Amino acid sequence: MNNRAETANPLGSIPRRRRTAEKKAPPRAVIVHSLDHARLALAAARAANKPIVLRSAPGAASYAGAGWFAAMIARAAREFSGVAFTASLDCGADPGHAMAALREGVPLVRLAATKRVRAKIASMAKKSGAALDEDEEAALDLLNAADPAGALRDWLASA
Fold it and tell me: In which element (H, E) is residue 78 found?
């Protein structure tokens, strides 16, 4: 008898189920207040081999500016090339700050505005290759972390 026939599927021609792709968890967000925070977060993301979202503090566009945030992110990206991350600037309720962020090349913009205003900003963002950050998941805020590096390790490990 043919060796192949002896090892044939005992269920005959019933097709096997294809494994569905595992749904990946979205990247964890970390609220950074400085370049040093961004560096810590990206070092932790590299060590954990996980993508991350660097998010500004709430309303940071109004007191730090889109230019500062974009420059900080650009520098962090140069220093941590190869680390998968994106950045999100919180513009509070001011669509003008959101538009400035888009002009500066910020990839994600948080905006607490009416649905109509958000739709307009989302359209502008899409045209520039950016998007509104509508992630409502909790984020780790490094501002008051006693041990930021340890907090980051735990935060990324819990994803």
Answer: helix 66-79
Cβ pair 111, 93 in contact under 8 A: yes
Question: Residues 124, 111: contact at Cβ < 8 Å?
Answer: no
Measured CA to CA in angstroms, residue 120 lies from 98, 99, 101, 131 at distances of 11, 10, 14, 11
Whether residue 59 lies inside any domain: the answer is: yes
Whether 72 is in a domain gets the answer yes
Judge whether residue 131 has pLDDT over 60. yes
**Domain range for 146:** 25-157
Phi, psi of 31, deg, nearest 5:
-85, 120
In a domain, 8, yes or no: no
* Residue 22 CB coordination number (10 Å): 6
Read off the pLDDT of residues 56-93 as tens digits, 9 standing for 90 and up.
999 999 999 999 999 999 999 999 999 999 999 999 99
